[in-house]
Amino acid sequence: MIKTDILIIGAGPCGLFTVFEAGLLKLKCHLIDTLPQPGGQLTEIYPKKPIYDIPGYPSVLAGELVDNLMEQIKPFNPGFTLGERAETIERVEERLFKVTTNRGTEHYAPVIAIAGGLGGFEPRKPPISNITDFEDQGVEYIIKDPEIYRDKRVVIAGGGDSALDWTIILADVAEELTLVHRRSQFRGALDSVEKVKELDESGRIKLITEAQVVGLEGNGSLSGVEIKHNKGEAFLKSTDHFVPLFGLSPKLGPIGEWGLEIEKNAIVVDTFDYRTNIPGIYAIGDVNTYPGKLKLILCGFHEATLMCQSAFRYINPDKKLSFKYTTVTGVEGFNEN
User: Fold this and answer.
1) Is the domain of 132 the same as that of 174?
2) Short-list 149, 151, 11, CA closest to 78
3) pTM for the structure as a whole
4) Whole-angstrom Cα distance, residue 152 to residue 276?
5) Which residue, 246, 108, 272, 92, is CA-closest to 100?
6) Are residues 109 and 255 in the same domain?
7) Most buried in the list 243, 245, 319, 334, measured by CB within 10 Å?
8) What is the C-alpha separation between 250 and 253, in angstroms, rounded?
């Protein structure tokens, strides 16, 4: 059982920045995310994609922004429940919610901040009829620990940054590594494409383009994949792991069943403080909607700031809010007991 002041659903950039703004008000935060690490889309889908709308940064890589946010919130010691999905919510007292994850972890907080980006993420699966038979038996959609692939035969499918990045990393880990992409051109960063081609030319990996994995074989666990060229030729390749990295599909998921006002798969909020139609529940970032909404990270940061001010008043209705600029006292001044 986990107790906190603000329970943040979603550990993307807006969720992480909420920890900082809440910390300035001496409010404790805990974050839930379906992904195994903080950062949301920035970490999972395009860690090397440059972002241009963060004040003070002409350009910053998505992964670097997440690292900086994690460093920024360190003084406030947030808690994390990662790799779990917020499943159900119930009000157990007038100003107290209980949120339970799909794995049964219970969280209690007077305020819920939904910062789930475009919602919960589910992996985009290739159209292979028996792929579910091999999930966790050789088929993985997200690489959580590279050491799992140490001295193993691995086939990766995909043409984006995630597929390219993991190909480069696992080239030094796997016994045999193959990257399959249905096109000859890649969607990822040019330097990553060049590195993958160099690995192929040096014989450290096998790059197969204009082809797709169309079938899986094995008895209980994966033993091989069927690869078919776009021109029709197919062959069987022995492997221990198949990792299709086609990105993550956003879904509002169970949040859509919580009684919140929903409009076009987004949560309707009041722009005064980004409250929802349920007192004590707020929604910030890409998951919310209102007239004039812009789905930008910097807008989510602004929403998080105003939301935390309102959350303080909701949690402490009889306490006067005295907010000071960090340039006056510094973060340490806000973190004193």
Assistant:
1) yes
2) 11
3) 0.66
4) 49
5) 108
6) yes
7) 245
8) 9
